[in-house]
């Protein structure tokens, strides 16, 4: 094979990831959904779920993409897990039937497709959130997104990551306890990183 | 006004009590005053759950089972001579119903855990119904037992991390309280029947078992609750006015309920 041909082949192999549909697996150690809820009209309280997994497929050239996230509801935390002398902590309360009812619904899922693109990357995701057995449409706005070689592996591993936000009403999913003292409107903030599948 | 309807005291206490009171007064002459418990519970369920039953969660199944208990109770009361085996049959039936109610939870556990948890739930409901059915012909004892069962299960559920289940239980107690109050004020016993004892026993036991399976209530706390209907059979001043009997018997019931609360609190903080 001539040197020119070899160069062309090498250039094709080194083409950007967006040349074809690629799949990515969520990095569970650097991916967490957070939520913000207002308490009694005073402070905004932040919580998060510690365990999330999922898959992303993306084709920047064709401007298509899909995401599927699975969140373990029992991993919810708001920083109050030590009940002390109380019969229960706030995090235990969140796991009860009053809120996430984790014994009956141990997982919530989000399945979406990239509805809008800015350049080679998605800017909005339209999807379906399933929480407490109820599925409702939710749109996430991608605030930032970047793909590139993982600097920790000298470029051997390719990754994407970013943040997305959205808003839901928990009563739409049947979670009505405490409204309006604990706000119905919940802000979602999802940060995730994902590695391209080999 | 919206603030009133969404306030827990209204949802679990005031509204169920008033609804129960209306029924106890209006239907007393038809020997259906016992429906005060079911109607009070219904009012609470409407405020907390609305009319949605999809998806059919464990909580919604408990609501349906409690309402079904009231309907069955009315049918049994209407029978010219209820079968002697009705008590054991209904106890077994509601014990099995507990497995149906909590199936979505049990099916996610290991076989060993599912069997243990299911047995606890079924036994708690079955035993409570069995011990309660004999009170159907004793209005004051039945009302006192229902008061203790409702408040007992409700407060225990709150201590077990579910305020919602607490409100449902308290609503059962509120309806029972309304039933008792009419008798206390008129100094006349009003028929309780299976229409009272069955939804009170089944509903309270199901919510208490739910607090064990879905929240953090320790299973030991179910034992004193199941014994409430036994405790109210202790001697009462039969020749005293109805209001005195109601107070004494309710005190028995609430003492047993308090034992459940102590267990729920102590085991909850350990």
Q: Can you offer a commentary on this structure?
A:
The complex is a heterodimer of chains A (198) and B (270). Chain A is mainly β. In chain A, 9% of the residues lie in helices and 52% in strands. Chain B has one domain. Chain B has helices spanning 2-5, 8-26, 36-49, 58-78, 86-101, 103-106, 111-133, 139-159, 163-186, 194-214, 222-226, 228-231, 242-269. In chain B, helix 9 packs antiparallel against helix 10. Chain B is globular, with a radius of gyration of 17 Å. Chains A and B meet through helix 2 of A and helix 9, helix 10 and helix 13 of B.
Overall mean confidence score, pLDDT of chain B: 93
- Find the CATH superfamily of chain A: Lipid/polyisoprenoid-binding, YceI-like
Structural classification of chain A: mainly beta
Output the number of helix runs of chain A: 2
| N-C termini distance of chain B | 41 Å
Number of domains of chain B: 1
Largest sheet of chain A: 8 strands, antiparallel, barrel
What value does the Rg of chain B take, in angstroms?
A: 17 Å
How many domains make up the coordinates of chain A?
A: 1
Spatial shape of chain A = globular
* Top-tier CATH class of chain A: Mainly Beta
In total, how many beta strands of chain B? 0
Question: Low-confidence stretches of chain A at least 5 residues in length (pLDDT < 50)?
Answer: 4-18
Number of helices of chain B: 13
Low-confidence stretches of chain B: none
Per DSSP E runs of 2 or more residues, the count of β-strands of chain A stands at 11
Question: How are the SSEs placed, and which strands pair?
Answer:
The complex is a heterodimer of chains A (198) and B (270).
Chain A: H1 3-13, E1 22-26, E2 32-39, E3 43-49, E4 52-59, E5 64-72, E6 76-77, H2 90-95, E7 107-118, E8 121-131, E9 134-149, E10 158-169, E11 185-196
Antiparallel strand pairs in A: 1-4, 1-11, 2-3, 2-11, 3-6, 4-5, 5-7, 7-8, 8-9, 9-10, 10-11
Chain B: H1 2-5, H2 8-26, H3 36-49, H4 58-78, H5 86-101, H6 103-106, H7 111-133, H8 139-159, H9 163-186, H10 194-214, H11 222-226, H12 228-231, H13 242-269
